[in-house]
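Q: what sequence does this backbone want?
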C-alpha cells in the first residue's frame, strides 16, 4: 500500500510535526470514533514515511576514513 501523495511530498520534519499533532488529538480522547480511526490511519502512514526518510538519510551518511597510502576515503557509517 503506497502512502497518499500529500504525505509522499512531505519533508521528515513536516510529517513528524503532523504525526505529533495527531498523537496529541488521539490522546485527548475528544475525537469521535470515525475521526479517531481516520487519524490513526493517517498517523500510521506518516510514521511509515518518517521511517523511510530516516532510513534514506542513514544510507546517505558516510564516514570519512584514511584509506591506503594515507589518502582520505569514505565508507558507509555503521550505526547501532
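A:
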Amino acid at each position: 500500500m503506497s502512502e497518499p501523495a500529500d504525505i509522499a511530498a512531505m519533508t521528515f520534519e513536516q510529517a513528524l510535526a503532523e504525526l505529533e499533532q495527531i498523537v496529541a488529538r488521539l490522546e485527548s480522547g475528544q475525537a469521535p470514533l470515525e475521526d479517531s480511526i481516520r487519524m490513526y490511519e493517517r498517523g500510521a502512514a506518516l510514521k511509515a514515511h518518517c521511517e523511510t526518510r530516516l532510513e534514506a538519510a542513514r544510507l546517505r551518511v558516510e564516514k570519512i576514513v584514511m584509506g591506503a597510502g594515507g589518502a582520505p576515503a569514505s565508507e558507509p557509517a555503521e550505526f547501532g
